[in-house]
Amino acid sequence: MRLHTLHITAFGPFGATQEIDFDALSAAGLFLLHGPTGAGKTSVLDAVCYALYGAVPGARQSPGTSLRSDHAPADLPTEVRLELTVGGRRLEITRRPAQPRPKKRGGGHTTEKAQSWLRAYDPEDGWQALSRSHQEIGEEITQLIGMSREQFCQVVLLPQGDFARFLRADAEARGRLLGRLFDTRRFAAVEERLAELRRAAEAQVRAGDDQILALAQRIAQAAGPAARECPPPDAQPGEPGLADAVLGWAATARSSARERLDIAASVLATAESRHAAARHALDAERELAALQERYAETRRRAAAVEAGRAAHEEARERLGRARKADLVAPALELREEAERAYRRANEARDRSRGRLPGTLADAGAEQLAALERRLREELGGLESARRAEHRSAEIDRERAALERQAAADDELIRDTENWLAGWETTRQDLQARIDAALEAATRTELLARRLDPARRRLDAARRRDALAAQLTVAQRRLAEARECALGTREHWLDLRERRLRGIAAELAGQLVAGEPCAVCGSADHPAPARTGAGHVDQAAEEAAETAHRSAERARADAEQALAVVRERHEAARAEAAETAGAETATDAGATGPTVAALASLVDTLTGEHAEAYRTAAGTHAAREALTAADREQRRRADDRQQAERRAAARTSRREGLDREQAALNEVIDRARAGYASVGEHAAVLQERVALLVDAAGTVREEETAAARLKEADDRLADAAFRAGFDTPRAAAQTLLDDAAQRTLQHRIDAWQAESAAVADRLAETGARAAADRPPAAPHAAQEVCDRAERALREAAAGLDAARERCAELDRLSRRAAQEVRALGPVREEYERVARLAGLTAGTSADNARKMRLESYVLAARLEQVAAAATARLQRMSSGRYQLVHSDARTGGRRAGLGLHVIDAWTGRERDTATLSGGETFFASLALALGLADVVTDEAGGVRLDTLFIDEGFGSLDDQTLDEVLDVLDSLRERDRSVGIVSHVADLRRRIPAQLEVVKERHGSAVRLRAADGLSD
User: Fold this and answer.
1) Exposure string (b/e) for 960-973, b if CB count within 10 Å is 16 or more?
2) What count of Cα atoms within 13 Å lies in the side-chain half-sphere of residue 533?
3) Which of 864, 859, 866, 868 is nearest to 889 (CA)?
4) Residue 828 CB: number of other CB atoms within 10 A?
5) CA 491/CA 484 separation, integer angstroms
6) Contact 15, 119 (CB under 8 A)
7) Mean pLDDT estimate for the chain
């Protein structure tokens, strides 16, 4: 990388535009940047850094500070433009920070956002613009240079104060600086990852050990008394011997439980024998008590049998008489049935005689039968007259039917003649309907072809109007989104500028008492900056930036939504306007026909189409009507001819009926005999015959019932005498029903059975012998048996508990063994990861120097830096000093980043803190140059043709200064130019190429003094 020109406008102390020609300065190889304190020497380096990375070195980017010069006029913007060659390309970078400017309209100021431009030079086409994006320019420059801003500030600007502190710093401070320069975060990430894996594996091992300890607690609970004799192992999760200890203790608990199981089995056998003896004694006492109670109960039952003997004899006698009376029962029932039949027959005879005339009230059955036969003969003589009367009625009905048919035929003939009179008119009307329907069908097709396009245009017009409203809403939302995006961007830039102005307070918050300040290098902090009102922190700035990006996305979404709505609106408007006919031409404007006009057209066409369709739909009906009318005309003509024929036939039929009616009337008049009709006369005769038949039958039944009653009385008297009763009444009083007889029989049988049972039980010798013995004591025997049974249950429960305890211990022991086997691979993985994590973290016993992995890598880099620095340090110190890396431990600290100097005069190695002030300067200068070489190689070998060295030359004597300048001048061998930033007056005499920064009242200015003259 080689710098060509730098233009600084309104930046820092420079109120106007200043141009620096680095090509002229670099021609001499070594140039001096000098000027009074506060003139702006460091601001030149800040401008270079700002042009490349968009920010000044971190130590000078204080919060709340502004890069704009207070000397610059209000209308002159702050700008830095740098022209350089890097990676074989000539580039021009222009940057403007966020800054206030006068408003274009009205008074006051507004904040203008930061801007950046990147251009590249092409020999044929000249300068070509590449990008205006801050992010793209930053990524492009970082990729070309190969270094971050922090690395660039350490390698190109070479701040000597930092490297002097680096020489005297401890290993931790050196590690922080080297880590930033060489970006060893990936090695620190490896350490952290291994630590995380170790913690995760340790957690798994502890979880497994917790499971094993939980199983041990369950084994202790299951073991019961055995666990109290041998308590579980007192080990913590993670201890190596935990698993083996738990398994050994579990085996001991199982052995003790099996011993207790054998003891419980012996106790149960003893309890079973004692319980069997007690049960046998209890059964014997219970049997004795049962025999004694049986004998006493038998004596009580014998007394009761003797007391019921008299009642038993009475029941036997009563049952015998009742059974004799059962022999008379059929005769009694027969006599009662005969009496009931006689009463019914007598009542029926009286009812039938009451309906006969008084002259026949005492007539016998024979007299009534003779009268019945005479009436039946008379009734048979009326049968032919009844048929004649029936036929006369049929003739009347037939004559009436003929009259009805004649009237119907007359009406039919009149209606037919009237209908046929208008037939020709009806036929013409129906034909006209058919012609009109055919014409309407043609019109329907024409209207349908016009209606579909009209409906499509109407739908398109409605979509057009709806999309027009959506278009207005989308335009309003886009305007709001743009305004919101602009507001959030201005708010973000404002917060960013306010944070930059207050960065001093933010850095002051990181100060530690006794440690050097990152800005000035002093270990004293007399007045650190304080956070003022309205201070903006990084979180607020990032939140504002996130809000701005969200607003930008919303604006892009609104633009896309507006484009979609606009495209749909144009398509709908074109569809609504196409093929618009004369009907809507008067209402069509720039946006096409209105919805109202198209709706009116559609309604008109729809109505006409519906009317034409309805008319056309009647074609088939009209044709069917014409066909039906033709059929009706032919049918009516036929009906009229048939009616005329039927009229002629009815005339001849009437004449025949009149002749037959006259003959029948003569027969009917003779048979009526004064009644209204023959049927009435026959009905009277039939009623009289029925009365006579009923009366004769009831008289005969009454006579038969009287004879049966007399016969039943004779049989009853004979049955009672044979059964031993004096009268039938006595036999009836002795009768008992089946239920009463069964009750008496049960009582007799029960007494006899009880008497036999008592006799049998009194004959038992065992019960009599038991009664002679002392009273039995079953309750005492029961208590003894209960105590033996409780002891047996306790022994059985103890045995079951011992068996369950053994089974549970076996099951839990198997689970514990499974857990131990499953935990084996996890524990091996933990031990492997723990060894690696301890090794990389420097805590393992295998790591003798206690070096972390990152420190090890940085130690290798420091060794390279020390070797590169020694090549220049020996020339600067006339071969006396050389820098070496030391990995020795100091005190209790870890080794790895020690830095010593070897003094050739004494041949001894000592700490760099023992160097004098001048020696520290050229040692740190050599270290800085060596570090620049190593970092450059680390960055991919990017060539750095311009370097700057800031301060420190005032501590050297003349000889050492010459040697240092010779070393710096030798850098030209690698085609480099070195700029020395210093206010040492002796350097102005030794270095002819100079860039002087002059401090003036209206702002600083630069003057270029090349080897051949002076220029402004």
Assistant:
1) bbebbbebbeebee
2) 0
3) 859
4) 11
5) 10
6) no
7) 76
Q: Which residue, among 862, 994, 879, has the nearest Cα to 935 in the 3D structure?
A: 862
695: nearest Cα among 371, 351, 327: 351
Q: What is the pTM of this model?
A: 0.40
Structure tokens at 198: 């170790």
User: Of 398, 403, 405, nearest to 643 (Cα)?
Assistant: 405
SS (H, E, C) 948-963: EEECCHHHCCHHHHHH
Amino acid (1-letter code) at residue 774: P
User: What is d(CA 357, CA 691) in angstroms, rounded to the nearest whole number?
Assistant: 10
pLDDT of 439-484, one tens digit each? 877 888 887 877 788 888 888 888 888 888 888 998 898 899 889 9
Q: State the Cα angle at 348 between 343 and 354, rounded to 5°.
A: 130
Q: Is 934 exposed, middle or buried (0-12, 13-18, 19+ CB in 10 A)?
A: buried
Q: What is the chain's percent helix, strand, coil content, to nearest 5?
A: 70, 10, 20
pLDDT in tens, 221-258: 777 766 666 677 666 666 667 777 777 777 777 777 77
CA distance linking residue 382 with residue 378, whole number of Å: 7
Tokens of 618: 């009647």
Give 955's Cβ-side CA count (13 Å radius).
16
- Compute the distance between CA of residue 902 and CA of residue 873 in angstroms, rounded to an integer: 11
In tens, the pLDDT along 197-222 reads 877 777 777 777 677 777 777 777 77
- Mapped to the 3 state alphabet, what secondary structure does 2-59 carry? EEEEEEEEEECCEEEEEEEEHHHHHCCCEEEEECCCCCCHHHHHHHHHHHHHCCCCHH
Please report which helix (H) or strand (E) contains residue 303, including its range: helix 242-307
Assess contact for 925 and 952: CB atoms under 8 A.
yes
Buried b (16+ CB within 10 A) or exposed e, 977-995: bbbbbbbbeebeeebebbb
Cα gap 770→877, rounded to integer Å: 138
Report how far residue 225's alpha carbon sits from residue 214's, in angstroms, rounded to the nearest whole number. 19
The residue type at 297: E
Rounded to whole angstroms, the Cα distance separating 83 from 77 reads 19
List the structure tokens of 260: 């207790």
Helical residues (DSSP H) of 586-618, grouped into ranges:
595-617
